[in-house]
Design a protein that fits this description.
The complex is a heterodimer of chains A (237) and B (231).
Chain A lengths: L6 H9 L2 H9 L4 H23 L3 H19 L4 H9 L7 H30 L1 H6 L4 H27 L1 H13 L4 H25 L6 H22 L3
Helix pairs in contact in A: 1-4, 1-8, 1-9, 2-3, 2-4, 2-5, 3-4, 3-8, 5-8, 6-8, 8-9, 8-11, 9-10, 9-11, 10-11
Chain B lengths: L2 E2 L6 E12 L2 E12 L3 E5 L6 H8 L6 E6 L5 E4 L12 H6 L6 H7 L4 H4 L9 H13 L5 E5 L7 H18 L2 E5 L3 H7 L2 E6 L1 E7 L6 H8 L9
Parallel strand pairs in B: 1-3, 4-8, 4-9, 6-7, 7-8
Antiparallel strand pairs in B: 2-3, 2-5, 9-10
Classes of the chains: A mainly alpha (237), B alpha/beta (231).
Chain lengths: 237, 231
């Protein structure tokens, strides 16, 4: 998302899950399934609208996320506790089964990313170059949006829909500051994401805020980002 | 019909009745020509004449009517006018390895770049001349029969521009490549191409490149379109 100059798209896409979470809470099924369904459907609609209208993803996601937020707030207006949980997450309610499923889904996402990685990067560099090299750019972009939706859905339980966009954007931006090649960028993005998440969770436990790790995960990530800004700045001298 | 052919087997590209039309707009109208293998064809014309669209059509990136017939098993290399590489931390090595990881050194030396110096550099920090050479290295890495260049020296200083065209001439001789290039520079067209196709929505001239210096022809090419091959 950072390389595609679509950082805000990653953030905004995360809010699209809210109506699905709300429906899960209201009708007693796993809210995450609702979130997944809304994210996937939105990704497909955004991709299709992008092809038809030639509008940028950021415009379409902007429209979709405000609509989703409005529907979600309307659905959960009488259950403020559930709304708060959907918006901010609650790690204390993450079960072992969910944790195992999240690991499995993450591995699947990594493998799929590996398969489309070259095509994706080539499409970012030049759509014409990619197409003339036999890459189906539209199909690759759709897979990419679905993958982002998948990753966002996994993170919602921990940081909530408001802050999960952080996980898509900030670790990658920090890695970009200190990377001169794709391998380093990929490895550092993952490492920074893992450090932000784990240190935020540990910090929330240390500060006796176990149900609110989201903001502390964000603070940890921003600290890493600021350090990489300093490193980049220092490297110019 | 214009033709730069010696025998039928030498034709590498035949374009017949090619048109590209969008709602309320005709971009290319009834283009016809043939091209001989090993020729360098310059595509010229004013801004908005449809030159880049013509390339996109040859690469099958836009819907069209008419016929584009490449010779059998022709491999095409494409060098775009610009890249969005400045924000992507991709090294030259990673970029070239997307296409062919085994032929990087040869390809870079063919375009006058030292692989030791350049392979680990980030694409976004290369100078204009180095980036163009790296792109040409990308285009030739899998030994194409045809190279398409969309204004290959945009943003490149004059010395590098001359060097890039000289290098293209040598590549053409060495590897017997057919080259199609879009250029606004009349001297480049005269000195480095064999024939030229002037577009202004339709074909306004197709013939030998040395004629580009004729002021009357320049008025035809860059003035109001006078179409050849009208249906």
């Amino acid at each position: 998302m950072v390389l595609e100059k679509m950082a805000l798209v990653g953030d905004a896409l995360s809010h699209v899950a809210l109506p699905g979470l709300a429906l899960g809470i209201l009708y007693n099924f796993d809210p995450l399934l609702g979130g997944f369904a809304f994210l996937f459907a939105s990704a497909v609609i955004i991709w299709h609208l992008g092809r038809v209208t030639r509008l940028g993803f950021e415009t379409l996601v902007g429209a979709m996320f405000t609509l989703a937020l409005a529907i979600g707030i309307l659905l959960l207006r009488e259950d403020l506790e559930a709304l708060t949980e959907a918006l901010f997450g609650d790690i204390t309610k993450v079960s072992s089964l969910y944790a195992i499923a999240a690991v499995g889904i993450s591995i699947f996402a990594i493998l799929l990313t590996r398969i489309i990685y070259n095509k994706l990067v080539l499409g970012m560099i030049s759509e014409e170059l990619a197409t003339s090299s036999g890459v189906n750019v539209a199909r690759t972009n759709l897979l990419y949006l679905l993958l982002v939706s998948l990753v966002v859905a996994i993170g919602i339980k921990i940081t909530g829909t408001l802050l999960v966009g952080f996980l898509v954007v900030v670790p990658a931006a920090a890695a970009r500051n200190v990377s001169s090649n794709l391998l380093r960028y990929s490895v550092l993005s993952s490492v920074f994401g893992a450090i932000s998440s784990s240190s935020g969770i540990l910090l929330s436990s240390y500060l006796n805020l176990p149900e609110q790790p989201g903001p502390l995960v964000v603070f940890s990530g921003i600290a890493i980002f600021l350090i990489t800004v300093l490193v980049k700045w220092a490297s110019k001298f | 019909m214009g033709s730069f052919m010696e025998s039928h087997n030498d034709i590498i590209l035949k374009v017949s009745n090619l048109s590209v039309k969008f709602p309320n707009q005709t971009i290319l109208d009834n283009i016809n020509f043939e091209l001989k293998r090993g020729t360098t064809l310059a595509i010229v014309g004013p801004n908005g004449a449809g030159k880049t669209m013509f390339f996109r059509t040859l690469l099958n990136l836009v819907p069209y009517t008419g016929r584009i017939k490449w010779a059998t098993k022709v491999k095409i290399g494409y060098v775009p006018q610009k890249l969005s590489a400045s924000d992507i931390p991709i090294s030259v090595k990673e970029f070239l390895s997307f296409k062919n990881p085994s032929n990087m050194e040869n390809s870079l030396s063919s375009v006058g770049l030292n692989s030791k110096d350049i392979l680990n550099k980030t694409l976004g920090v290369l100078s204009g001349g180095q980036l163009q050479r790296a792109l040409i290295a990308w285009a030739i890495i899998d030994k194409p029969d045809v190279l398409l260049f969309d204004e290959p020296t945009t943003g490149v200083d004059l010395d590098s521009e001359e060097a890039i065209y000289k290098m293209l001439s040598e590549l053409k001789k060495e590897k017997e490549i057919t080259i199609l290039l879009i250029s606004h520079d009349l001297h480049i067209v005269r000195d480095y191409s064999d024939c030229m196709l002037a577009l202004n929505r339709c074909v306004t001239f197709f013939g030998e490149s040395k004629q580009i210096m004729d002021p009357d022809l320049q008025r035809i090419i860059y003035g109001e379109p006078v179409c050849l091959y009208q249906a």
